[in-house]
Design a protein that fits this description.
The two termini are 21 Å apart. Helix 2 packs across helix 3 and helix 3 runs parallel beside helix 4. This protein is an alpha/beta fold and 266 residues long. The chain has eleven helices and eight strands. The radius of gyration is 17 Å and the shape is globular. The longest helix has 19 residues. Strands 6-5-4-3-2-1-8-7 form an eight-stranded parallel sheet. It has a single domain, classed as Alpha-Beta Barrel (TIM Barrel). The structure holds 6-hydroxymethylpterin-diphosphate. 6-hydroxymethylpterin-diphosphate binds next to strand 1, strand 5 and strand 7.
């Protein structure tokens, strides 16, 4: 057991979209989104990741105006109560989200570090090959671990020199990756951790888990998601991005406090 496990943060997914692959349409209404956010807080979430545009394979892009309309009221309502990140790769949306109270930019394009530097907020550099519309058509790598690792480190190092106060790296599971690429990256998480940057990973209910679990749909991927989050925690990641907050918080607490001996009742 490493020290990191005790402190694995749980980032809760809150998509204010009609078309996200799992929670699409559930929280389009501001009140429903804020209620889900408050529920996640009660469940022990550390950060809530608010998104206004689906990045699922083949998703249609959304305008900045529409994305802002979806996310800003939700961020404004939740940020007094919990840390909020904005899941966007549009500078105009991320800047407005920071104004509304977000303190972390979760950037699947890994391109917004200058904004994070000037706004003095945290930044997640996620790796993606291509863009969501086309990324799953025929992703190709020579050595997927090496290429994703080196590309993230280059972006992260640049962000530090730009003055970003908090830099995370994320291998971007499912973003321009085949099943084999995803599995190789998950198997090599420890290599990313050794870079010294805090690592986050998002596997929650993703398609490759459905395939690995025998062809099950998103509704039936909780067990596989939890198992994979636990694996990631054993490898030393600092944060897992999940839909199922209560169950993941329980799993991380069990690992971090209960099963290490620290939590053994006297
Ligand atoms: N995955 C999704 C969205 N944002 N951000 C990071 N840093 N890492 C991820 O793995 C990641 C992410 C996709 O999941 P979800 O938001 O549930 O679906 P959708 O893109 O359909 O809204």
């Amino acid at each position: 057991m490493t020290d990191g496990q005790a402190g694995v943060l749980v980032m809760g997914v809150l998509n204010v979209t009609p078309d996200s692959f799992f929670d699409g349409g559930r929280y389009l209404d501001v009140d429903a989104a804020v209620a889900r956010g408050m529920e996640m807080i009660a469940e022990g979430v550390d950060i809530i990741d608010v998104g206004g545009e689906s990045t699922r394979p083949g998703a249609d892009p959304v305008t900045a105006d529409e994305e802002r309309r979806r996310v800003l009221p939700v961020i404004a309502a939740l940020s007094p109560h919990v840390r909020v990140s904005i899941d966007s790769s549009k500078a105009a949306v991320a800047a407005a989200a920071v104004e509304a109270g977000a303190t972390l930019i979760n950037d699947v394009s890994a391109s917004l570090s200058p904004l994070a530097a000037s706004a003095k907020v945290g930044w997640v550099a996620m790796h993606m090959q291509g863009n969501p519309r086309t990324m799953q058509r025929s992703p190709e790598y020579g050595d997927v671990v090496l290429e994703v690792h080196d590309s993230l480190l280059e972006r992260a190092n640049r962000a530090l020199t730009e003055g970003v106060p908090e830099v995370w790296i994320d291998p971007g599971i499912g973003f321009g990756k085949t099943l084999e690429h995803n599995v190789r990256l998950l198997g090599a998480l420890e290599r990313f951790v050794r870079s010294g940057y805090p690592v986050m990973v998002g596997v929650s209910r993703k398609q490759f888990l459905g395939t690995l679990a025998g062809g099950v749909g998103p509704e039936e991927r909780l067990d596989a998601s939890l198992a994979t989050a636990v694996w990631a925690a054993t490898q030393g990641v600092g944060m897992v991005r999940v839909h199922d907050v209560a169950q993941t918080v329980m799993a991380m607490r069990l690992m971090g406090e209960r099963l290490t001996g620290e939590g053994v009742p006297a």
